[in-house]
Amino acid sequence: MNARRRCTIAVAYRSRGVGVAVLRGKHVVEVRRHRLAPGRDPQAAIRKLLRKTLADYGTSHLVVERDGEADLATANMRGLAIRSLSLSEAKRTLLPRRDHITHVELAKHLLREHPKLRRLVTVLRLSGEIAINEARRLVPLHAVALGLAAESDQTRK
Amino acid sequence: MENMNTTQEEDAELFGRPPLVYQIRSLRQWHGDDGLSQRQLSELANINERKVRELESCRVLPASIREVLAIAIALDTTVEELVIPDIIADLHAEIATRRLEGRKEEKESATAAPPNNLPCQEV
């Protein structure tokens, strides 16, 4: 792996939960998860979190969910290379032979490909299924999916 | 509503800051089965938790570490190999003992709650 390869930051937002994934190529470097305090403006909070993460990793490459809060939040941020991608596009990129991919199918695929991501979700002990009752729990995986899809696209090009 | 000028000033400041020098946060997150919290890492390494936080957010590599790294690279070796094996072995043994003790304590105080070391801060 080229140590000098730049990092990409991907961000997803759902139900006052923010997931931020840091990727170097297809390697997931770090995943951060935040919960917005009641009454906090999501866009301002996302901007603040992104500024910190972008600075931490010295990168300006960002992937956001199209038309989502992060897309709107970063609209006025200068000097960034922003790629906006819908979660459906990300699903199609990561699972190209499948139609109508659910969030759970996406999550299962990600956990299969990157077992270390299991620690981000609750896996039910008896059934081995991923607990999906809290949308917030899957947000970090959405961020990872957006980042991986953006990186896969670039690899293909 | 956020002030536009502030945003631009902050954006400018963003690119003026050097990135983090250590990958401790990332390594800590993916360590073992469930990752390690700052407290667990500080206990294992036997250093202050505040020091772990400081190191994680460090943006300038201390000169002493840079020098040791430069010597290791110049000698085509790793920093670990620069140090006499006894010191490394002692450290490994110390940390292994603390890890074992930590696991015993964990077993004793095992609760129904699943482990989750991914921090979820309220912002």
**Interface with most residues:** A-B, 36 and 30 residues
Distance between the termini of chain A: 19 Å
Count of discrete structural domains of chain B: 1
The quaternary organization reads as: heterodimer
Q: Characterize the largest beta sheet of chain A: strand count, sense, and whether it forms a barrel.
A: 5 strands, mixed
| Whole-number mean pLDDT of chain B | 84
* Number of beta-strand segments of chain A: 5
Largest sheet of chain B: none
Strand content of chain B: under 5%
Please provide a written account of the structure:
The complex is a heterodimer of chains A (157) and B (123). With 157 residues, chain A is of the alpha/beta class. Chain A has one domain: Ribonuclease H-like superfamily/Ribonuclease H (Nucleotidyltransferase, domain 5). Chain A has helices spanning 42-57, 69-73, 87-94, 103-113, 135-156; strands spanning 8-14, 17-24, 27-35, 61-65, 81-85. The model of chain A has no long low-confidence stretch (mean pLDDT 88). With 123 residues, chain B is mainly α. Chain B has one domain. The radius of gyration of chain B is 19 Å and the shape is flat. Chain A binds chain B through residues 18, 22, 29-37, 40-41, 43-45, 47-49, 51, 54-60, 76-79, 116, 119-120, 122, 140, and chain B through 2, 4, 7-8, 10-12, 14-15, 17-20, 23, 25-26, 29-30, 33-35, 114, 116-123. Strand 3 (27-35) of chain A pairs parallel with strand 1 (120-122) of chain B, so a sheet runs across the interface.
Write the layout of secondary structure elements.
The complex is a heterodimer of chains A (157) and B (123).
Chain A (H helix, E strand, L loop, with lengths): L7 E7 L2 E8 L2 E9 L6 H16 L3 E5 L3 H5 L7 E5 L1 H8 L8 H11 L21 H22 L1
Parallel strand pairs in A: 1-4, 4-5
Antiparallel strand pairs in A: 1-2, 2-3
Helix pairs in contact in A: 3-5, 4-5
Chain B lengths: L3 H13 L7 H7 L7 H8 L3 H8 L6 H12 L4 H4 L2 H24 L11 E3 L1
